[in-house]
């Protein structure tokens, strides 16, 4: 590797922890080359980015797949620019790939700016501390959807596989079968839709499957006089 | 910066009582006696400027309390009802699986859920569906609390697990 | 007893931010404006007597916080959890673009944001919006933490809004 490349490699290694992703690397390179986003020379940036990827590989540093995706995107972009297609990539065309890259970078730069704005605000628990409170339980008024989902997630972590199997479908066929059996303990004949408590399609499908299963094990007989007419379940 | 003020800020921001040794860790070169002096000076300042709180010495350390004469107002302050992590779990199971029996909840959670069910019933977040076996459903109040218009608004569990399950 | 002092005791004793309407329930015959006046008078008293805390207006109401200059001492007591730069970026996208999907966040950042989303959810800085697909929004807690009264307090990002209309 040439001396310049080695140099760059070290520079990147020093900077590596602060890169948040491939777009962050590109912004760094653009700034280092004193380009502006509006007046961007793509080819040198592409080359330097690829050199970065290469040096990371040489050093056996694991790169997130996004960095490699970006590399292949940039190679494609560079080939577009080098091919003598006669098309002018001057930034005026909406489908212009350079323009697309610029927009990505502008959006990312805006977000980087916004996150540094956020970080510069006096943050609670970092710069300002609220009057202490010993409450650890969740106040009802502050409950969020996230709390609910996380509760389920923690549950899953505790009881493993079984939970998700059960939770995956809100309508278990076994439960509907139990319901049908309950109904048939007082009536000899019920309508299939009596076993459905909601109006949801998934539950109706579940009820139908439950009926088929019960018919298979000879618990019920299924009766339907005409196509699309009412389906009855009769106790056997 | 005045040591006394640092001590004030420390006790102020602590959850519950703050032990002297915690203060000594943060503010070096002072003694227990210095802390006691600072606290009594602070209480003097509060008294003179008509403040409604004081720092009190409790067995576990120093803590802020409001003066007794304000208690009637504080008592009438709506005491926010709280939900334990267990109750939240039960609620989540019922939301995604309703109507369901206590047995289903217990099986999924691997523990008995009686007290959580009671607390959720009390908070009117769940209700009992008529019929046998006894089954639980979430209520209108549940929808209100979580800003849902119906249960079908519940986020997709699979998508959430994709995010959280990637460990 | 002075209304101002009752208001002080109420906010002081609340766990977290106390909404004006809670204060209005307890102290009759006053207006929101009276509360704001009382709070600014109280802050004046704290300032003049050299106190280390102030009452701040948060989105959800009023809350006590310590002054920034005491933070170095308090940090060692609280061991605050820090937000990573990645998490801050994700938070910024969601704040400016909420509600938005994980895909939007990933696209703008050019990297996968799963672990940041997880940590932000855990810290209750973001929440999941009811409905499908799963979309994220910032929370009241987010506003509190960054000292904002609403999302419109955020500085204008200019071109950013043009590039991405809300979902």
Care to give the gist of this entry?
The complex is a heterotrimer, with one copy of chain A (about 240 residues) and two copies of chain B (about 170 residues). Chain A is mainly alpha-helical and about 240 residues long.
Specify the structural class of chain B. alpha+beta
What kind of oligomer do you see? Answer: heterotrimer
Order of SSEs of chain A, N→C? HHHHHEHHHEHEE
The biggest beta sheet of chain A, please?
A: 3 strands, antiparallel
* Greatest chain-chain contact: A-C, 45 and 58 residues
Overview of this structure, please?
Chain A has 236 residues and is mainly alpha-helical. Chain A has helices at 3-15, 22-32, 42-58, 65-82, 97-120, 145-159, 161-168, 173-186, 201-216, and strands at residues 138-139, 189-191, 220-224, 231-235. Chain A has a three-stranded antiparallel β-sheet with strand order 2-4-3, with helices on one face. In chain A, helix 3 (42-58) runs antiparallel to helix 4 (65-82) and helix 8 packs across helix 9 (201-216). The termini of chain A are far apart. The relative contact order of chain A is 0.06. Chain B is an alpha+beta fold. Chain B has helices spanning 3-13, 20-26, 32-48, 71-76, 85-97, 102-109, 114-122, 140-146, 157-164, and strands spanning 53-58, 61-66, 82-83, 100-101, 126-129, 135-138. Chain B has a three-stranded antiparallel β-sheet with strand order 4-6-5. In chain B, strands 1-2 form a two-stranded antiparallel sheet. The longest helix of chain B is centred in the N-terminal third of the chain and has 17 residues, at 32-48. Chain B is elongated and about 65 Å long. In chain B, 34% of the residues are buried. Chains in contact: A-B, A-C, B-C. Chains A and C meet through helix 2, helix 5 and helix 6 of A and strand 2, helix 4, helix 5, strand 4 and helix 8 of C.
């Amino acid at each position: 590797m040439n001396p310049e490349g080695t140099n760059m490699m070290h520079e990147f290694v020093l900077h590596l922890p602060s890169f948040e992703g491939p777009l962050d690397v590109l912004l760094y390179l653009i700034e280092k080359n004193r380009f502006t986003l509006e007046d961007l020379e793509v080819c040198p940036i592409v080359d330097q980015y690829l050199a970065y990827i290469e040096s990371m590989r040489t050093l056996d540093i694991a790169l997130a797949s996004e960095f490699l995706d970006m590399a292949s995107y940039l190679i494609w972009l560079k080939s577009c620019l080098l091919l003598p297609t006669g098309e002018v990539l001057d930034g005026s065309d909406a489908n212009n790939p350079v323009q697309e890259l610029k927009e990505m970078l502008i959006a990312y730069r805006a977000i980087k700016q916004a996150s540094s704005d956020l970080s510069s605000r006096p943050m609670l628990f970092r710069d300002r501390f609220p009057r202490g409170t010993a409450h650890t339980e969740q106040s009802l008024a502050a409950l969020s959807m996230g709390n609910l989902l996380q509760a389920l997630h923690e549950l899953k972590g505790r009881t493993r596989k079984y939970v998700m199997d059960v939770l995956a479908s809100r309508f278990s066929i076994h439960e509907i079968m139990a319901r049908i059996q309950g109904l048939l303990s007082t009536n000899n004949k019920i309508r299939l839709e009596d076993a459905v408590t909601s109006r949801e399609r998934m539950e109706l499908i579940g009820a139908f499957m439950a009926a088929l299963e019960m018919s298979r094990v000879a618990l019920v007989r299924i009766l339907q006089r005409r196509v699309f007419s009412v389906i009855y379940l009769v106790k056997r | 910066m005045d040591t006394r003020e640092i001590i004030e800020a420390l006790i102020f921001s602590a959850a519950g009582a703050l032990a002297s040794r915690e203060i000594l860790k943060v503010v070096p070169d002072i003694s227990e006696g210095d802390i006691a002096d600072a606290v009594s000076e602070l209480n003097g300042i509060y008294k003179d400027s008509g403040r409604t709180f004081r720092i009190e010495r409790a067995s576990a350390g120093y803590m802020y309390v409001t003066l007794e004469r304000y208690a009637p107002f504080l008592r009438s302050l709506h005491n926010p009802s709280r939900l334990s992590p267990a109750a939240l779990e039960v609620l989540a199971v019922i939301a995604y699986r309703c109507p369901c029996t206590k047995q289903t909840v217990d099986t999924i959670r691997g523990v008995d859920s009686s007290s959580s069910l009671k607390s959720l019933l009390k908070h009117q977040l769940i209700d009992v569906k008529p019929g046998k076996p006894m089954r639980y459903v979430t209520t209108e109040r549940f929808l209100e609390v979580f800003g849902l218009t119906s249960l079908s608004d519940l986020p997709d569990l699979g998508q959430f697990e994709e995010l959280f399950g990637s460990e």
